[in-house]
Amino acid sequence: MTEPDKQEPETAQLVRSYVITNGRNLPGEDQFSLITLVTASADHQQRPARLSPEEQKLLEMCVGGYLSVAEIAGHTQLPLGVVKILLAALSEGGYLITRPPVERAPLATMEILEEVLNGLRTKFG
Amino acid sequence: MGQYIQNPALWVLLAVILVAVAVVVRQRRAARKLQREIAGLRNHYGELEASYSESVHKAQQQAEGETRSALKSAMRTLQGLAAEQQRIISGLQTKYGDSVILQDLLEIDHMNAQFGRRAQSIAVLCEGWLGRHRDVASVYDVVRSAQGRIRHFQRVQILSKVDFGITSRAVEPVALALSELLDNATSYSSPDTVVEINVRTVPKGVCIVVDDAGVGMNEEEKARAEKLLTSERVTGVSGLGNPPQFGFAVIGVLCERFGFTVSVDSTSPYGGVRAVVLLPDELITSMPEPKEPQEEREPAPAVAPESPMPETGPEPSTLPVSMTADGLPRRRRKRPMTLVSTDQSSSPAPKRSSQETAALMAAFKQGTDAGRATHPDTTERQSGARDASSEGHEVS
Predict the structure, then answer these.
(1) Are strands B195-202 and B156-158 parallel, antiparallel or unpaired?
(2) Could you say which of A100, B87, B126, B308 would form a disulfide bridge with B72 (CB–CB 3.0 to 4.6 Å)?
(3) Which InterPro entries does this UniProt record tie to the protein (chain A) (predicted)?
(4) Which CATH class, in words, describes the domain spanning B136-286?
């Protein structure tokens, strides 16, 4: 370092995202959405030491109860996809339980509504 | 005696002697002169030789210096570009975190890191700039940073951790030296083997042990590596061989400049090479504080005095989200969604007394009822509605 260091306003992360994910691929689109709920599985209270700090942090975060993927990503300040990869790895290892979002209720068809209306009318009208 | 004097032979002899003496004297003088000349010539020759080798050496140094400075400035530019690109990729990763593009961005990031490392290595050999200033980082993170700079980083496994950090000055050199070791370890072992990293504390500091299951090194290679790592430093890019082998040369220069040691003499239990990086106590510090909790700890005291209130108060959602001791969000029951509350938040609510509001609502209700002009029993419902609305107002 013969020349004086120039302080840049932003310094890039020391540990890059692909090292954190260990080069794993993104999980399938259907496996994790923004509102998939995640919690730590009860039978893994003592955590193995082999997990990376990021994975341990995710587990700690999820111990308290169900958290959504979007919330977790917000707290870890990691890119969303990276969080998804880590969560997928953790749930594969059995450390996490995921709950897919509740499916949107299908819209009632007009016929049923009309029938109900007719029934009510014949009964009370 | 007289008869001798008269003998012409004597005179002839005398003359011959005289001539001989004169000749000898002259020859002697000439020889001395010649000798002096030879000595002068010899001196001159020596001087010439010295100045010749001196000028050759000087020219060599100058050429090396020029190469070095040219490479240094070129690498500086490349390093700057790589660093800038890394920042841009980081931004893109956050921006497109939810997209499939992320996969490609991670790969580009990986390539960029390798490219940056090579530029850095050459810069180190040319006594150039090592890179931007880094904060204190844990040994584990420095090892992972090094891991990210090589091609087959997935084959590297970190088996143990220590709770120590590396001083900010040494973060980058240690990461670079370790990445050169890991590069060697992964390139000289078969693709399906694993390179293991163990971090241990020893009385003199912290050891990072890199074991590979590769082909190992023969005596000649070992001798060369040892020479580069301990005594003979390389300056510039000459003498790296063909194809150039940067690894140990770079590590040697870094060791000398930053005061850590690397040895590769022992053999790995897996049959390959065991390399040991010994970081002395001067480069070791306590574990760095994680960044995010520091940011989150700031608002916590501000919330703390208020926190007993929301437990009893009806309006928790207007308060900032507080954190538990672990930095987790404290969950609160959600406020019921009502249309009334949003209306009230826009109106200057505290100015009106509940009686005024009740009167207003009554007037509104009366107007509605008058407009509808239906059954006569609406008056009862009207009073009920008034109570409900005034109550709702008081609550908020």
Answers:
(1) parallel
(2) B126
(3) DUF742
(4) alpha beta
